[in-house]
Amino acid sequence: MKIRIKSVNKILLLLFILFGVVSIASVVGAANISILNGIKIIASQIPIIDGLIDLSGIPDSHIFIILNIRLPRIILALLVGYGLSIVGVSFQGLLKNPMADPYVIGTSSGAALGAAIAILLKLNKTILGVGAVSIFAFIGALLATFIVYQLARVKSKVPVTTLLLAGIATGQFYTAIMSFIMVISSKDVTSIVFWTLGSFSSRGWNHVQIAILPIIIASIIIYIFSKDLNVLLLGEATAQNTGVNVEWVKRIILVTSAFITAFAVSVSGIIGFVGLIIPHIMRMLVGPDHRVLIPASGLMGGIFLIAADTLARTIIAPTEVPVGIITALSGGPFFIYLLRRTKKVI
Predict the structure, then answer these.
(1) Per-residue pLDDT band at 346 (split at 50, 70, 90)
(2) Where does this chain mainly localize (predicted)?
(3) Per-residue pLDDT averaged across 82-111, rounded?
(4) Does this model's pTM top 0.85?
(5) Given CB 3.0 to 4.6 Å as the disulfide criterion, which of 59, 123, 229, 316 pairs with 93?
């Protein structure tokens, strides 16, 4: 009972931090908007309390900036950080590999190749307000994951080692093709590189609408299997003996994780290290129980990516730094720490 109360308190603390980060991110920028006004503007969109909020005295330009430029960007960063962190948790638990992240099975390389093809073909059409580059990235991510899964299958099973090797091999193959595209189309190199570094620039409510339901629904499905992930930490044989259908759990986790990653990549580009560092940090803070670790990592991932995106758009304003650079600068040293720690264990 005490453990549950502590877990709930930690989740509530993360929600409080999230509220603070969203409030600050909504007012940081060129326009001089106070935090109080920012909170009022955001609260005016909440159905239950919208009638209690008085926006008189707040310039229309400030309302427009927050509701149409900053808020959709903040929510999208929250969704992507939330999704990638949950996928990172599930992969690290499923593969029993502390280095695993959402891109370990070649999803990012497939997405990058899809985006590069769209840029090369100069596709400018949109579907439901989403550009061709994002759509091709989504298709590339799902196809890459499907190919890796088929390559990794041994009869009716998917061994972890085979899955990792297939992911690395196909990822390198896709990267080579993308590099070839960049060589033959030097004019598009900047666009391709900028996309692969990840960014929330020029993102709006249409991107939020595309990503929100798939990411939330898929993350709920992963959470349903949190107990199974706990048992899998003891080994596949032990899990099988306790009644867990290991291969079925693997398939569900892989498919839903690939689904989340594909949607995240399609709206933000490739943002590395979020799914690697956040699960480790939260595992140290809340423990290894996936029933707590999954939601805690999701919230912390959202907080981290909102903060990173706010820094990316303000650090050398008016020029915007791709958010993937900020996450890589944060995640790179942490990844080196994990490598050193793993070497000591070996």
Answers:
(1) very low
(2) membrane
(3) 84
(4) yes
(5) 229
Amino acid at 130: V
3-class SS of residue 123: coil
| Alpha carbon separation from 334 to 99, 102, 277, 297, 299 (Å, rounded) | 11, 16, 7, 16, 20
> Angle formed by the axes of helices 189-196 and 160-184, to 10°?
150
The CA–CA distances, whole Å, from 327 to 57, 113, 162, 330 equal: 38, 21, 29, 5
- Cα gap 45→61, rounded to integer Å: 16
Tokens at residue 283, please?
A: 């595992």
> Each residue of 208-235: b (16+ CB within 10 Å) or e?
bebbeebbeebbebbbebbebbbbbeee
**pLDDT band at residue 21 using 50, 70 and 90 as cut-offs:** very high
Give the H or E element holding residue 30.
Answer: none
Tokens of 220: 């709920």
Predicted confidence (pLDDT) per residue in 186-231, tens digit: 777 877 777 788 888 888 888 898 889 989 999 999 999 999 888 8
Please give the backbone phi and psi of residue 98, each rounded to the nearest 5 degrees, phi first.
-65, -15
The Cα 315–Cα 309 span in angstroms is: 10
CB 310, CB 201: distance < 8 Å: no
pLDDT at 345: 47
- Measured distance CA(339)–CA(314) in Å, rounded: 32
Domains and CATH numbers, the chain: 71-345 (1.10.3470.10)
Instruction: Please name the residue that has the structure tokens 């940081």.
Output: 28
